[in-house]
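Internal tracking record. Fields below are filled automatically when a chain is submitted to the structure queue. Please do not edit lines marked as system-generated. If the sequence contains nonstandard residues, flag them in the REMARKS field before resubmitting.
Queue: standard
Priority: normal
Entity type: single polypeptide chain
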Amino acid sequence: METWTIRTDDGEGHLELHTFRPSAEKAPEGAPAAAPEAAPGAAPGHFPEPAGAAPGDAPAAAAGIVLVHGTLVTDALYRSFARSLSRLLGRPVHCYNRRGRAGSSPQPADYSAATEVADLAAVLRQTGSTDVFAHSYGGFVALQAARSVPIRRLVTYDAAVSLAGNLTSRWRPELERSVAAGELDHAWAHLVQGLETAGPVSKLPLGALRMLSILSARTSLGAEMRELLPTAVKEMRAALAADAELDDFAGITMPTLMLTGGWSPDYFAETGRQLAAAVPAIEFAVVPGQLHEGPIRPGNRRLALIAARFLLDGDAVPARLRVRRRLRPAR
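SYSTEM-GENERATED OUTPUT FOLLOWS
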């Protein structure tokens, strides 16, 4: 894994980025990882910005894939998935931390969907990538970007897109009030119950969810999620502020596959069905047996296989990817 820094186009921030390459062999302990060649004068640790390059300019066989993570997490949880996708495609996969977490800049005061779209565009351009895989809130970012940013192929999983106000009921004002008051266990409980993304746990009473939050805070992942709650408030507000109609996505022309898990909340499937019915470039499918957190479950190779097949469609598909598993038909 290689760690880099991407400068944002607004000149006010930076994004921490991790790259996984298919040919990378395990280096001896203490040995530096192989790095892409920098352009003359480029700052160490920064990707050079290709002059006049756009994602569509690079051959698909060599160009990378950008992975956009969801809310309340960092890119660290996606590394197993990124490695699998890189090996299957034979191409680099770039995971970056969106603003407000890990080594990236804080969310700006005027944070909005436009912030995320500009950041994704910068990552695509500066890494020379052509394709995108995006999860949950990352799927919202990617679909917003697809309306104006050159992308060759796009795969989303449980994209959190607000269509005609369908996510409004998921917003809990108590979440924002609890975060402002520093009552993070209350905030976490309202977030989980409102979004229903934690599977059966989401159905528990608020009191039980608060207790779970207290217990999970003793783990490194639970503590990290609590720290990221303020970013979740801004991200949910950005998604609701970008509420759209089906016609707003009519301009999407790149092949797009919207996936949802068989055990994911139903509203993700409803969004996918509506968009696929309205936009010719969009396909929709349900992956049986998958939860909302499918891409971050270690060893979940099935989603990586499905994404790889779609991203390779039209290219030479390796034999190991030719046997397709049946997906549940979109109704």
